[in-house]
Write a structure and sequence with these properties.
The structure holds two protein chains of two kinds. Chain A is mostly beta strands. In chain A, the strands form two sheets. In chain A, strands 2, 4, 5, 9, 10 and 11 form a six-stranded mixed beta sheet that branches. A five-stranded antiparallel beta sheet of chain A has the order 1-3-8-7-6, with no helix packed on it. In chain A, strand 7 and strand 8 form a beta hairpin. The radius of gyration of chain B is 14 Å and the shape is globular. By secondary structure, chain B is an all-beta fold. In chain B, strand 7 and strand 8 form a beta hairpin. In chain B, the strands form two sheets. In chain B, strands 2, 4, 5, 6, 9, 10 and 11 form a seven-stranded mixed beta sheet that branches. A four-stranded antiparallel beta sheet of chain B has the order 1-3-8-7, with no helix packed on it. The chains are: A mainly beta, B mainly beta. At the A-B interface, strand 4, strand 5 and strand 10 of A face strand 4, strand 5, strand 9 and strand 10 of B.
Chain lengths: 113, 117
């Protein structure tokens, strides 16, 4: 069965610092991978997705993620954190063509002034 | 992208009662899903709502507890039956339209925050 592991339930960075949120997946076939963001008391918003095209995926708000098959990873990065980036981030995997999403446990990003 | 609304946005219910949550999309979509997000937890898929037929439930979720309807391509309901405090969660509807440019992208509704006393 496919699964997703997000390393670190809480990540704290200073404003302007690099953001790195880690995600590892397990899958017997190349999956589709997603990063979602959830701001307080709001629904989920898609940041970016990997669907077997380019391994470096650029998303909204300056975020990007790199699919590394050898490491079964899909880490999310942003060169410079903004205060507005403080939120909950979820990595998710989808078995190809099923539409179902399996979510990781989430990482809370705190941005300090 | 699809615009999704859910009703109610929140509710407080007594144990043993049932609540029906509505999900409305502003355009026809091929796939609709229902997720649960328990307090401080991640999202778990409850079921895929199938248009014109019975929903497909994930392991651990049953139709008697979470009956789902999808009468057309823009609307679905999820009922939480015979509620207990353990059902206190945020319930989210999501959609995917495989005929559009946004193939393989799921859009989520704002969620329904349910508290069971």
């Amino acid at each position: 069965a496919q699964s997703v592991t997000q390393l670190g339930s809480h990540v704290s960075v200073s404003e302007g610092a690099l953001v790195l949120l880690r995600c590892n997946y397990s899958s017997s076939v190349p999956p589709y991978l997603f990063w979602y963001v959830q701001y307080p008391n709001q629904g989920l918003q898609l940041l970016l997705k990997y669907t077997s095209a380019a391994t470096l995926v650029k998303g909204i708000n300056g975020f990007e993620a790199e699919f590394k098959k050898s490491e079964t990873s899909f880490h999310l990065t942003k060169p410079s954190a903004h205060m507005s980036d403080a939120a909950e981030y979820f990595c998710a995997v989808s078995p190809t063509h099923t539409g179902k999403l399996i979510f990781g446990q989430g990482t809370t990003l705190q941005v300090k002034p | 992208s699809a615009v999704i609304s859910q009703k109610p946005s929140r509710d407080i219910c007594q144990r043993g009662t049932s609540l029906t949550i509505q999900c409305q999309v502003d355009s026809q979509v091929t796939m609709m899903f229902w997720y649960r997000q328990q307090p401080g937890q991640s999202l778990t898929l409850i079921a895929t709502a199938n248009q014109g037929s019975e929903a497909t439930y994930e392991s651990g979720f049953v139709i008697d507890k979470f009956p789902i309807s999808r009468p057309n391509l823009t609307f679905s309901t999820l009922t939480v039956s015979n509620m207990s405090p353990e059902d206190s969660s945020i319930y989210l509807c999501s959609v995917e339209d495989r005929t559009s440019f946004y193939y393989n992208e799921q859009f989520f509704g704002p969620g329904t925050r349910l508290t069971v006393l």
